[in-house]
Write a structure and sequence with these properties.
The complex is a heterodimer. By secondary structure, chain A is α/β, with parallel strands linked by helices. Chain A has helices spanning 17-23, 64-83, 104-107, 142-149, 151-157, 168-172, 176-179, 230-243, 269-278, 283-286, 297-306, 321-328, 339-342, 359-371, 373-390, 393-410; strands at residues 2-6, 27-32, 39-41, 44-48, 91-94, 112-116, 162-165, 182-184, 201-203, 209-211, 216-223, 248-254, 289-293, 309-312, 333-336, 352-354. Chain A has two domains: 2-188 and 394-409, Rossmann fold; 201-390, Rossmann fold, CATH 3.40.50. Chain A contains 16 helices and 16 strands. Chain A is globular and about 65 Å long. Chain A starts with a strand and ends in a 14-residue tail after the last helix. Mean pLDDT of chain A is 93; it is low at 420-424. Chain B has an eight-stranded mixed beta sheet with strand order 3-4-2-1-5-6-7-8, sandwiched between helices. A six-stranded parallel beta sheet of chain B has the order 13-12-11-14-15-16, sandwiched between helices. Chain B has a two-stranded antiparallel sheet with strand order 9-10. In chain B, helix 3 runs parallel beside helix 5 and helix 9 packs parallel to helix 10. In chain B, 40% of the residues lie in helices and 15% in strands. The longest helix of chain B is centred in the N-terminal third of the chain and has 29 residues, at 21-49. In chain B, strand 14, helix 13 and strand 15 (386-389) form a beta-alpha-beta unit. By secondary structure, chain B is of the alpha/beta class. The chains are: A alpha/beta, B alpha/beta. Chain A binds chain B through residues 53, 56-60, 62-63, 66-67, 70-71, 74, 77, 81, 103, 106, 140-141, 143-144, 147-148, 151, 154-155, 417-424, and chain B through 105, 108-112, 114-115, 118-119, 122-123, 125-126, 129, 155-156, 159, 173-177, 181-182, 185, 188, 191, 193-197, 199-201, 203-204, 207-208, 228.
Chain lengths: 424, 468
């Protein structure tokens, strides 16, 4: 089979699948604006293209998002027309989130197209009105903006033969027309790499290196922000430090915003909540809190491996890989009892679930966990088994993904779009 | 020469022509009185039954397609409000409460060309949304919203009134199979491979309205069938209606062409009528047949109505007009004396247009598979003998050798030959013209058929389940 991969930040979600397709003998080509020159990456021919133009400045504010996608889509279309001379894909795998694959059925009407379905923003979605502390302050017209944003999905749905999404929770965000053709297959966790390591160490500073002998509490996010419960975690912190005088708290995450909005008053969420709780924390206790910002993957792994208690909180929104990686590393976890978490974690079996808003429960369950080594061992062991059984990259997810690609290749061709290619 | 034509079924209602102006005035007054009396009775009735509906009409060029439906709804006792940017002051028109609003914002210059169309519609939609919010805050709550969504205005009205049933006027879905796109190979050359994409994005305005509309109305089956299956099921085919009393045969009709020339039914008049003379309406085929037609018919006068612009499909690439381009192409084949018998009138008044139909001995109508012109149905209503292109929208009303003659859109020789046949045979013309008028009386009569159907459609719309 000839396979074309489309991702604005290639390899993105195709990091494992791309090379796996090459390994079994498929010709795999990727189109991406992520590189400047043609190159080979793990057997994948990576072909670059450029954006034809930039966004327009004074566009109606509800259409700016769609325009950026149309620009990317047209640029990708032009690049596809060029490679059409020497390459005909049987299957196109594409992430539609930035618009690129929008017009590819026009280039290759017979190709089967499988889309990566990450998240569909619905009106009045649970994540948007989940936290009463941050009411949706946008004007009523925000729903109109959202509806026009979702035209990106509407423009993809007619050309997609199938979809793939990592979790049931993400699947549920999509309208029925998408759900009917979408399979739930996780990207997969490399459980051989992400595994317990009794000898792991993490250097915090020249004076401080943490090991499994230390009482390490970890909190990890791409960015420190309310949608990942950072405000809840910080409000528990003063009490936690007082209750656990030996504990070292390691916080990973950037200052910006991945999901939701920036604080109304400017500044970062990180600093906002430091300022809120700092007065309640002595200088000596504060010295046991370590904000490391963003770290290398190796250091991230080491943190999971030495963590005695890992905290993961999330709005009902796309689940972080870091939770499943923490489970794979055998960490003992206290997590929020929200839908995406419940899909992978059972309270009292593979972790401890607490109400997202209940700071007292978070504190008491953390203390309970830190006091009970047997409980930690039981939960951590079960968490790792859970990941190996259902989400292991090599034995579970990659084979499922390859079968999904094969099934896609055998689907009947989609009918031409309502206004399909000009017949002359 | 024998006078031809058909007498209008109801002469009392036939007020075409200057000699009927008194009758027209009396009739209008009578209708107004009747309407007022009816309204009074209905209002009394409604006080008891409270069964009247609140109806909101949205049209950027109000009344547009709601010219007859709006007043008819008022007449039966509904409260009818129209939101339109067309007027400056709030006013009442035939009982319809017209509320103005302004379009705020303007299109951005450097926007991606594929989104320019949508942006103008979103700008209009947001302005209409804001006006609707004000109307809502004043306490107005429509049961039914009737809207022409072609310019985008109704896009967000479901957010204002989630329980309202919205009925949209479905004029056209671009680029569907067997439609105007790529119909004419002569003008297809050089069409970009991206053209279908441009059309698809142009349809986003349609798509956005499918989600909020409880139903749709299309004037013809052809137009309804351009819509994708998912929404086609919700479209009722009901024509706007033809005023058959106005567009009717009149043996005494005259058309002044110039000081020296007035045409009547004793002349051999061939008519060709369009808003603009352009390929979408077959002007190239018509012009190319002209030399042969003029040679075949040495006494014929050919009256060509239509502007120099382009309504559909754009102007010719070389900066000229389609009209001039095809005149230049055929003029050398036509002698100067023959050319004297071709009369370009430009755009004319409706009364002159009706007079032309009434004096016309043969009417030529050509079109791509595209929205059918009203002029064809009006010609039929006037009892015209018609030679028309054998294309899908035409076939809906012209049955070959029954209500007109059909001819291949591209075949100029066939056009001239069929025209000859029609002009040589008064019996055929009379048979075709009578059947054409009868078809319009049966299927497209404004008062008897279309308006009652439209009112029923509005009532059915109100009965559909609400989807907030």
């Amino acid at each position: 089979m000839n396979i074309l991969l489309i991702h604005q930040n290639f390899p993105g979600q195709y990091k494992q699948l791309g090379p796996a397709l090459v390994a079994r003998g498929n010709r795999v080509l990727a189109l991406t604006p992520n590189v400047k020159t043609s190159l080979q990456w793990q057997g994948v021919e990576v072909v670059p293209y450029r954006m034809n133009r930039g966004s327009s400045k004074n566009i109606h504010r509800w259409l700016g998002d769609l325009e950026s996608k149309i620009i990317r889509a047209e640029s990708c279309f032009d690049a596809a027309v060029k490679i059409r001379q020497f390459f005909t894909p049987d299957v196109i795998l594409a992430h539609p989130g930035w618009g690129e694959p929008m017009f590819l059925q026009d280039v290759w009407p017979k190709a089967r197209i499988g889309l990566y379905c990450e998240w569909y923003r619905q009106e009045s979605q649970s994540a948007d009105c989940f936290d009463p502390e941050f009411p949706v302050t946008e004007q009523a017209t925000a729903v109109q903006r959202l509806r026009l944003r979702n035209l990106n999905a509407a423009l993809h749905v007619d050309m997609a033969n199938a979809g793939i999404t990592p979790t049931k929770f993400q699947l549920a965000s999509y309208p029925k027309i998408w759900r009917d053709v979408t399979s739930v297959i996780h990207d997969g966790i490399n459980t051989n790499l992400v595994c317990p390591n009794l000898d792991a160490t993490l250097e915090i500073s020249s004076d401080l290196t943490l090991t499994r002998n230390d009482e390490v509490i970890s909190f990890i996010n791409r960015n420190l922000e309310p949608s990942r419960g950072y405000h809840k975690f910080m409000r528990v912190l003063p009490h936690l430090l007082r209750a656990r005088p030996q504990a070292q708290v390691v916080v990973l995450g950037g200052d910006s915003v991945s999901y939701g909005v920036a604080p109304a008053g400017g500044g970062s969420w990180k600093q906002l909540y430091i300022d809120e709780v700092r007065g309640d924390i002595s200088d000596a206790d504060w010295a046991r809190v370590h904000f490391l910002g963003r770290v290398t993957y190796d250091r991230f792994l080491s943190l999971l491996q030495i963590s005695r208690a890992h905290i993961y909180l999330s709005y009902p929104f796309v689940l972080s890989w870091s939770l499943m990686e923490a489970m794979s590393a055998g960490a003992a976890i206290v997590a929020s009892d929200t839908a995406p978490v419940r899909e992978v974690m059972r309270n009292g079996e593979t972790g401890i679930l607490v109400d997202f808003f209940d700071e007292d429960a978070l504190l008491s369950q953390l203390i309970r966990l830190l006091k009970d080594a047997a409980l930690r061992a039981r939960l951590g062991g079960a968490a790792r088994r859970q990941i190996r059984q259902f989400y292991d990259l090599k034995t579970i997810c990659l084979p499922q993904q390859l079968r999904w690609v094969d099934a896609l290749g055998h689907l009947g061709a989609k009918p031409a779009l309502v206004n399909g290619p000009v017949q002359m | 020469m024998r006078r031809e034509g058909f007498v209008c079924g109801d002469r009392r209602k036939c007020y075409a022509g200057p000699e009927h102006s008194d009758k027209k005035r009396v009739l209008v007054e009578y209708k107004l009185l009747a309407c007022r009396a009816y309204t009074g009775i209905m209002q009394f009735y409604n006080i008891i039954k409270l069964s009247h509906m609140n109806i909101l009409i949205i049209h950027q060029n109000f009344p547009g397609q709601y010219k007859h439906l709006g007043p008819a709804l008022v007449c039966r006792g509904d409260r009818v409000v129209a939101l339109t940017p067309k007027v400056k002051e709030r006013s009442s028109w035939q009982g319809v409460d017209i509320v103005p609003y302004k379009i705020v914002g303007s299109s951005s210059k450097e926007i991606h060309s594929w989104l320019r169309d949508l942006e103008t519609k979103v700008i209009r939609a947001e302005s209409c949304f804001n006006a609707a919010m004000q109307l809502r805050d004043q306490g107005f709550s429509p049961d039914v919203i009737l809207a022409h969504h072609g310019w985008g205005e109704p896009m967000f009205l479901k957010d204002v009134w989630p329980m309202a049933r919205i009925g949209i006027y479905c004029e056209y879905y671009y680029g569907s199979e067997n439609s105007d796109t790529a119909f004419d190979p002569e003008f297809c050359k050089g069409i970009s491979e991206k053209e279908p994409i441009r059309l698809r994005l142009r349809n986003l305005n349609n798509t956005l309205h499918f989600d909020i509309a409880a139903g749709g109305i299309s004037p013809t089956l052809f137009q309804a069938n351009t819509f994708p299956p998912s929404f086609r099921d919700k479209i009722h085919v009901i024509h706007d209606g033809i005023d058959t009393a106005h567009a009717c045969p009149n043996p005494d009709a005259k058309l002044v062409i110039s000081q020296d020339l007035t045409l009547s039914r004793t002349d051999e008049v061939i008519s060709f009528v369009n808003r603009n003379l352009e390929p979408y309406r077959g002007c190239h085929t018509f012009f190319r047949a002209l030399p042969k037609i003029l040679r075949n018919r040495p006494n014929a006068h050919i009256v060509v109505v239509g502007g120099d612009g382009a309504s559909y499909g754009g102007p010719p690439p070389d900066g000229t007009t389609w009209k001039q381009r095809f005149i230049d192409e055929v003029r050398a084949d036509i002698s100067d004396t023959d050319w004297q018998r071709v009369h370009f009138t430009g755009l004319i008044s409706y009364d002159k247009f009706i007079s032309l139909l009434q004096v016309s001995r043969a009417h030529i109508y050509l079109t791509y598979p595209f929205v059918l012109s009203w002029s064809l149905l009006e010609t039929m209503s006037a009892g015209g003998a018609i030679l028309a292109s054998d294309t899908a929208p035409v076939r809906e009303v012209i049955f070959d050798d029954e209500t007109g003659l059909l001819t291949d859109f591209f075949d100029t020789d066939a056009l001239a030959d069929n025209l000859n046949r029609l002009l040589d045979d008064a019996g055929l013309r009379s048979r075709l013209g009578a059947a054409a008028r009868q078809l319009v009386l049966d299927r497209f009569d404004l008062e008897k058929t279309c308006l009652p159907q439209q009112l029923q459609w509005v009532d059915a719309l109100a009965q559909t389940p609400a989807h907030p």
